[in-house]
Amino acid sequence: MPERAPARKRARDIDRAQTCALLDAGYGEGQLDPAEYQNRTAQAMTAKTLGELASLVADLQIPEHLAEAARESTPAPRTRLSGRAVAAIAVAVAAVCATAVYTNRGDDTPPQTVVAAEQAPIAGGEPEPIVVEAFDPVSPEGVRNFLRRYQQQFGDLQVDDVIFYRTYVFLTRALPDQPHREQDWSFRGGFSTSGAPDARTLDTVTVDLATVDVDRLAEVLATGPGRVGLPSAKVEHIFVRPDSSDDALVSVLFQDQDERTGMIDTRMDGTVVDVSRAEGR
């Protein structure tokens, strides 16, 4: 298949989200300045084709070990995409998932891992193990567990934005007493920093996760596949972020085994504001 043909394929919501994740990584490593980052992210969120998404990350440096990790963990696509499109999609996942593999902007300090679970005493000279509790972040129970642990870790429920994936949670929040700096974190049973702190505008709008109505969210998670026209679909991710209105937006992305997607947007109280059904459904 000619390389230019896949570039014309229509982009899915998950393609846009994963490209944004790669832009996040590039910004965190200093490859993009704030203006470039904001401009490209805005373009990624409205991109129509895979070619448009690929062009937004084509000039970014992608560490080979992250690309290799993505190739090993990501199933081969049903349709062959161009090399750049594959890199944009696959490595975006690795950039977010492999937060313990690398550090940003030349910081040689290993990511900090905070473990809340009780551990047995460690014999002298032995490394302390990382305890990861099994949980499903995109289930109501997983969301409740995360909120409880988040409150314990940070003392509040404020966040710039947060994405619940199937096996982990990725978030950004301001540093304590430093509203002009932000830190990316991942949660896999314990909290780990992702890269070095970065600049943050003082007018950044935050989200109060205490206002999430998990019971109403549970209804959306349960009924969503049918509402988007994909009865066998599963939750791919839950994205909570500020919105142009006074309230935040919760976007739930559903995907079935044929990689068809649909999305439901709600307010924090569970009020549905938009349903994006799968194409042709």
TrEMBL record:
Record key words, sorted: Membrane, Transmembrane, Transmembrane helix
Taxonomy, superkingdom: Bacteria
Keyword Ubl conjugation attached: no
One matching Pfam family: DUF1707
Transmembrane regions: 81-102
DUF1707 domain location: 10-61
InterPro entries xref list: DUF1707_SHOCT-like
Protein name per its UniProtKB record: DUF1707 domain-containing protein
Organism: Rhodococcus parequi
